[in-house]
Amino acid sequence: MNEIWTERYRPKDLDEVIGQRHITERLKAYVASGNMPHLLLAGPAGTGKTTCALALARGLFGGEWKGNFIELNASDERGIDVVRGKIKEFARTSPLGTAEFKIIFMDEADALTSDAQAALRRTMEKYSKICRFILSCNYSSKIIDPIQSRCAVFRFSPLSREDVEIYLRMIIEKENVKMDDDALEGLIHVARGDMRRAVNSLQVAASLGKPITLDVVYHTTGLAKPEEVRKMLEAALAGNFLGARDMLDNVMITYGLSGQDIIKQIHSSFFDLSITDSEKVRLMDKTGEVEFRIVEGSNERIQLEALLAYLVMIGGNKR
Prior knowledge:
The chain is α/β, with parallel strands linked by helices. It folds into three domains: 20-155, Rossmann fold (3-Layer(aba) Sandwich), CATH 3.40.50.300; 161-221, Helicase, Ruva Protein, domain 3; 226-318, Zinc Finger, Delta Prime, domain 3 (Up-down Bundle). It is built from 15 helices and five strands. The protein has helices at residues 2-8, 21-33, 49-61, 80-91, 114-126, 145-149, 161-175, 181-191, 195-206, 214-221, 226-237, 241-255, 259-269, 277-295, 300-318; strands at 38-42, 69-73, 102-107, 131-137, 151-155.
């Protein structure tokens, strides 16, 4: 464990956001020059967007960063009144201390309404000399083109298994947590490239005060074991509909899963089934239809059992 950590992240590299080295190098260049354009940070949750924005502000302003930096969450304040009020008031006032400009960080900017984004584009242009914007979003396609063209775009990618493992092993070592190797693998699987989810799940599992096993990981994260979901699907393919239905009941009750939770795990398990590619394509199509119906408000139990029945029919064509 120590060898992996020492080899991959030596002390001089500890000021980098895990898994986003190409982005941190560009941000360090802004800090070195003392200047920056408007930025658009786009990518999945838990990949370091907010961390990068805070680190950039600290690097540029030092001890004066709190007076020259404001963080807003567009999910809470998403209307045009916020742009015309709070944002405009902060943007047009002079920076404090020796700073040449201030920073407005808007998290979840893809939640801004179209009218708010249209108002924001003019504010970004008018006050660019004394105020820079950092917009963070999960889906850059929801940001209007005029705003995207005013920003330098940084695209964050989901973290690799290796990056998540290295960071979790560092925490495990420093916190003296007892954890099985298969439990660590399960935690990495649960995280799916989201470092925040990985760290939070580790903390919840460790809070029980006992060695962390694979069972503890799946129970504390509210996900079923992949092998249990796969066995349920295999039972349906073998024609055992009632057995598969009982397994579905057990999984949903034991782990407290909703219909949307289990359909995501069923989707991931299709690739492990011993069926042809054409049958997997049909299953994907059917699963997408079932997921849409659940989201739209259909009875999740009926829809999930209908999916198991479809698996039984596919398995029947092979027998």
